[in-house]
Amino acid sequence: MVAGTYIEKIAVAAATKAVDSASFAAFNPTVELDLILLGLLSKIIYKLSPIYRRMSILLVCPRCGNRQTDTGRIIPRCKCGTPFLINNYIEKYGSELVKAFSSRPRGVWRYLELLPSLKATPISIGEGGTFLHHSEGLGRQIGLRKLYIKNEATNPTGAFTDRGASIELTRSVEIGIQKILCVASGNLAVSIAGYSAKAGIPCSIYLKQGVEQVKLLQALAYDAEVFLTRDPSLTIKLLLEDSKDYHLVTSLNPLLIEGYKTCMLEILEQFDWSPPDWISIPIGTGSHLTACWKALKEVERAGLLKDSLPKIVGSQISSCAPIAEAYKKNKDYVEPIQVDRIIFPDIAEPNPSWAYTALKAVRELGGAILTVDEEQLINAIKILAKNEGILAEPAAAVALAGLIDAVNSGIIKRDESVVYIVTGSGMKDPTIIQSFAEKKNSIDLGKEKQIGFTKKKILELLIEKPLHGYMIQKELALRYGIKVSLPTIYEHLRDLQMIGLIQQSFSSREKTKKPRKEYHVTEMGIEIYRKLS
Fold it and tell me: What is the mean pLDDT of residues 294-309?
């Protein structure tokens, strides 16, 4: 017992000393011998007790190499504009690492030696350890004999983002965070809300306007305050002006990447450390692709891999594909784009934070970044559900649509092995299910016949901005002279919602106030209104 405690103290001291010294070793030759001795000592300690071989939280810019220590209380973006990654101190300890991994239960925290060194008890609700299976049905349908599906929809809140949330909230508990704010797309915000609830930390989330209703309801169920924003970047800027009393989480946070990368670590372990030929992954901010690349580079340095690294096929929705455009033009940066309407908010990122590393990953590993349209995406959801019994949300189905395109165009050979990652559950966006469950030949005509003058004017108002029932009643009277009772307004709204032309969302500005219901027009609603006009 005494010997174990002594070794632990030496290990912690050695790791701390090595990391602190590494940041200035290049500028101070006198520390080089000290670093060599510490390196040898840490190797001996690691072989005696692998669990002590952990990473300290040192940040490094993947573009310019700038370094800083993570305080956990700022959004870590380098002065060059690139998000920081956590710098990993890894050497070749392959067989020992495999033994350490296999001694623990499946899940994110199975890979302790490749995660940041955190002292707090992990905030965990069963994230990670997701199933990977050989897909014969879907593989036959799209022409791949060795297709495998990694189903991340089985994570606790229904998306891969739970992996990052577990690491992020564990760190927040460790440094004594009293309140969490999160500005993010739907899945990440929902994950942070859920894991904040588990950690017992109050949470407020800021979601893109137009986010799927189920995600709003999920966050509210976790007792989070929910706000909608039209401009997430501006919201982040305003929140950063006064960030002393809370911790701000966005897609930039490098601890999220550490959690996300465990998805790739699991795939590699499930393949007995002999990687598949290809990984198919959707691209939004580029964070998940960055995490996969980071995991691959780390296990390569650790000497875990038995074969060469896999290639990546990344996919974006064509209506919002800045990373794909940059890849096509051979640029290492993206040009932010203007998007008039965002159909799938969880995958559509006009100015993706992790574009540089996403582009770097695909060019280093080999592969391609493709774009798919809405029709391809819907078809991908259908054939996945029909052949595998897995319902994917649109953001996840983008990767399957891109994979099908890559096979048909010859980018991926039909005898190559491919892992397709289903990043989120289709139950997070039931409106998509409704859209293709209806009979195709009756969608437009049937809806147009159900739209009278008052309903048309309600659509017109909601196209301008989301409104609650009372404001719709007021605006109809002021602008069009339509005077109807509030119950009648809600009857019209129910009718429009039943045929998929509008949807509800909820916002809670204060915990003492009841969440307010607002109505948003859907893309189908906009299309029908244009036909009627």
Answer: 94
